[in-house]
Write a structure and sequence with these properties.
Blueprint (H helix, E strand, L loop, with lengths): L13 H14 L12 H8 L3 H13 L3 E4 L3 E4 L8 H16 L10 E2 L12 H14 L1 H4 L9 H15 L8 E4 L2 H11 L5 E6 L3 H9 L3 E8 L2 E2 L1 H7 L3 E4 L13 H12 L5 E5 L26 E6 L11 E4 L5 H8 L8 H12 L2 H26 L6 E4 L6 E6 L5 H10 L2 E2 L17 E6 L8 H13 L2
Parallel strand pairs: 3-14, 5-6, 5-8, 8-9, 9-10
Antiparallel strand pairs: 1-2, 4-11, 6-7, 10-11, 12-13, 13-15
Helix pairs in contact: 1-3, 2-3, 5-13, 7-13
């Protein structure tokens, strides 16, 4: 059945827009010669317009010779002559482009890539995941077709609550947890939860996507500088912000772990005003390689006024393509959430939530975390070993390597960053620069600092990657 989008008709009448659409399809030979068209009534019902509108359109097409009618039989497409004009050649070329678009050529893979956060294909527990998937199909088929409540499937929220209690010392109930399809969606929920006129503070330097998501949702953001201990409390006080986004356990990209004194100062700032809140992004807390995991701000004894909203995803622990994240709301925001957002449909399919819940319930998630932590520790140690035994160690310094899945590489050479970036591009090297994560001026950066994300690199590729980087940087 023929379909056209009347929302795109602009100033045209319904009949004129339908005429133009049918005519273009006939000329493009989307209809075969002598092919029967839908009856006036059937087409009108399908398009949601009047029979008179279709009748007027058909009459015009008949008068111009594009279609013909047979009494008591219907309407048919006229067999038109084929021309090999320039227009036809152009149209043929356009058709070829459309076919090419269906089979896109992917960009060339970087020879050295320390930007991607993808995990190794071999490290995902496909066999276990497949087994759990089959079990969910057998055990809970009736639940898979039901819409989950706004906060998500209860079984998954319960497992997340148990996991947070065991590994993050967070005593929360499933009712405080909200499941969503990634951080972008969860941040948009938080904006809707608060008043639109609130000002948000973000870390500078920081993960710029956070500010982009917040601004897209119609709120203002104020970058606040970092010092050696994390986000500057002085800058936060001056900003006039109501809500601040932080990653205190392991800041991206600097790698700073916020000490307890600064945590106290940030919480004290939040506690002083009713409409102040902290969004605590705990994005890679599972992968701390020195000492015990730090207590989240959410569980801090200084969080006396329930001012912290905790956010995390399964991006680092399972896969970046695994679009499941979650919020943990303080109890004083639960009623507000129900009033403002309780009618929202959950954005993660019930099936994925049930599979992940069972994966966690059976202990596979915890085993996977332990396995990946050992793998990433080994990967990091080998990368650092190769860097230190190369000539790079003569003019490069490794910083903030004890936590998370990235560290910094400070280059003690007089190099212009734009020149180095061009060299990287020419040699098919992808490594982000710390300066790229600043808003505005790149304050206090006297040297070039590279951000080395190592989770996506294979161990066997490390020696040649370090060698290529060594050769390139040694020429300066």
């Amino acid at each position: 059945m023929f379909t056209c989008d009347f929302s795109k008709r602009g100033n045209l009448t319904l009949s004129d827009f339908l005429y133009e659409n049918l005519k273009s399809h006939i000329l493009a030979k989307d209809f075969k010669p002598n092919e029967k068209l839908p009856s006036k009534r059937n087409l009108a019902n399908h398009l949601g317009i009047s029979v008179i509108t279709v009748a007027n359109t058909y009459e015009r097409l008949i008068s111009e010779g594009y279609i013909y009618s047979i009494e008591k039989s219907g309407f048919y497409v006229t067999e038109l002559l084929t021309f090999s004009s320039k227009d036809e050649k152009a149209k043929s070329h356009d058709s070829k482009i459309d076919l090419d678009f269906e089979n896109p050529i992917f960009p060339k893979k970087a020879e050295i890539d320390f930007k991607t956060n993808a995990i190794s294909f071999e490290k995902f527990p496909f066999k276990t995941w497949n087994k759990i998937t089959k079990e969910v199909f057998v055990e809970s088929p009736e639940h898979l077709l039901k819409l989950p409540e706004a906060k998500g499937v209860f079984q998954l929220r319960k497992e997340i609550a148990l996991y947070l209690r065991r590994f993050r010392n967070m005593k929360v109930s499933p009712n405080q947890i909200v499941i969503g399809s990634g951080t972008e969606y969860l941040y948009s929920l938080l904006v809707k939860l608060f008043d639109n006129n609130l000002l948000y503070a973000v870390e500078n330097p920081g993960y710029k996507k956070i500010a982009q998501v917040l601004k897209t949702n119609g709120v203002k953001c104020k970058p606040c500088n970092l010092d050696d201990f994390g986000l500057s409390i002085e800058d936060l006080e001056k900003s006039g912000a109501n809500v601040v986004h932080l990653s205190p356990s392991h800041h991206f990209p600097t790698g700073i772990v916020m000490p307890v004194r600064r945590r106290q100062e940030i919480l004290s700032w939040a506690n002083r005003e009713k409409n102040r809140y902290i969004i605590e992004d705990d994005y890679d807390s599972e992968f701390r390689f020195l000492g015990k995991p730090l207590t989240p701000l959410f569980s801090s004894e200084y969080n006396t006024e329930n001012k912290v909203i905790y956010i995390n995803t399964f991006t680092k622990s399972l896969s970046p393509s695994f679009r499941i994240g979650y919020l943990v709301l303080p109890k004083n925001l639960l009623e507000v959430f129900e009033e403002k957002l309780g009618f929202f449909s959950n954005t993660v399919s019930s099936f994925e939530q049930f599979v992940l819940a069972k994966f966690m319930e059976k202990g596979f998630f915890e085993k996977h975390i332990i396995k990946m932590k050992n793998y990433y520790r080994s990967l990091r140690n080998y990368l650092i070993f190769c860097l230190e035994k190369s000539s790079l160690s003569n003019f490069c310094k490794i910083k903030e390597e004890e936590s998370g899945l990235h560290f910094l590489l400070e280059i003690d050479k007089k190099i212009d960053s734009e020149t180095l970036k061009k060299d990287f591009s020419k040699n098919n090297i992808v490594i982000p620069f710390l300066e790229d994560y600043f808003y505005g001026e790149k304050t206090n950066l006297e040297k070039i600092i590279l951000v080395i994300n190592y989770s996506g690199i294979k161990k066997e590729d490390i020696p040649k990657s370090v060698k290529k980087l060594e050769v390139l940087l040694s020429k300066y």
